[in-house]
Amino acid sequence: MLIKKIYQRLNFINQCKKYNLSLWQCPSFLFILTGLIIIIAMISTYIVAIKFTPPEIVALIVIGMTIILIIINHFILQGVDKLAEANKMKSEFIGIVSHQLRTPLTGIKWSIDLIMREKDRLDKFYIQELGDIIQNNERMIKLVNDLLDVSKIEQGRLILKPEKISIEELSRNIIKEYHSIAKAKNIVITLKSKTNHQYVLIDKQGIKIIIRNLIDNAIKYIKDKGEVKISLINKKNSVRFEIKDNGVGIPKQDQKKIFQKFFRSQNIMRHQTVGTGLGLFIAKSIIKESKGKIGFNSKEKKGTIFWFEMPIIKQ
Predict the structure, then answer these.
(1) Residues of 176-188 as b/e, b for ≥16 C-beta within 10 angstroms?
(2) How many Cβ atoms are within 10 Å of 247's Cβ, its own excluded?
(3) Bridge partners of residue 244, in order along the sequence
(4) What whole-number distance in Å separates Cα of residue 190 and Cα of residue 242?
(5) Is-contact 151 278, C-beta < 8 A?
(6) Would strands 293-299 and 226-234 be described as parallel, antiparallel, or unpaired?
(7) Strand, coil or helix: 298
């Protein structure tokens, strides 16, 4: 039984996979690393102290201190294990709740769609009210879908189905979806492509989520009027998607946290209260899983450039 427990503690590779943790977050790896540091420190102490104290006493002190420190470390890491397990249970709970919420929200959407088909027979007041309901319902559905995606990412269950995609063609189609929203805010969206219709291998729904999130953010954080410039550029072995806006920008102190889930910069929250801080976390996870890169450059009050790169499919 003791040997089994020791093996489970030392088998940090499986533990990292189980909790979807990086190596430096894995309790077992930290346990081994801490143990090695303690042993090295004790041996060094022994070598130094042997000149001044009888070897037998130094050895007993070293052994005793090592055992005490390892026991303390073991209890600390047990707490970390429980925390990781609680975090996993939280992600599963969010996934279950989000899944259960999506069904009634979709039902509401279908019911509203049926009513809107008869809008010619409705008063203008009711049409306007239904429009607000549709907007809020869509917002709730997006939130639920984002929470489901985050739950899958945290549990290592995000399933992507890569297929041959033209980012240029997909971008043009998605831009059309934002035409009326951009026009209402006096924002012009432009697309310049130098890719010669190169193809990449990525999940179609995943890349749609990424591009929509980036365009949505660019429009959302421009105060009054402005321009959103999208560029598609051929790199050596990849296609680069860039989106530039002249919005509020991201403060320097917040830039390192921008891809963290639920994080929203303070200056952004002053201008736009609506948002969850999940879009960029999901985008980075999908790009990383698809063997791509993502990043940004930003200056507060001047604007932001977000970009991602995906390897080109070699013909």
Answers:
(1) eebeeebeeeebe
(2) 24
(3) 229, 305
(4) 12
(5) no
(6) unpaired
(7) strand
Amino acid letter, residue 128 = Q
pTM score over 0.90: no
Q: Which two tokens stand for residue 141?
A: 């559905």
H-state helical runs in the chain: 2-10, 12-19, 27-49, 55-116, 124-154, 167-177, 179-184, 204-220, 266-271, 279-289
Q: What one-letter code names the amino acid at 234?
A: N
What are the distances in angstroms from CA 173 to CA 139, 164, 170?
21, 16, 5
Residues making up the chain, counted from first to last: 315
List the chain residues with pLDDT less than 70.
1-31, 46, 48-53, 55-58, 72, 75-100, 102, 269-275, 315
The residues pairing with 231 across neighbouring beta strands, listed in sequence order, are 192, 242
Please state, in angstroms and rounded to a whole number, the distance separating the CA atoms of residues 219 and 266: 18
**Spatial contact of 249 and 218, defined as CB atoms under 8 Å apart:** no
Domains of the chain and CATH, by start: 1-158 (no CATH), 162-311 (3.30.565.10)
Distance CA 107, CA 93 (A): 22
Do residues 137 and 105 touch, judged by C-beta distance below 8 A? Answer: yes
pLDDT in tens, 1-15: 545 555 555 555 565
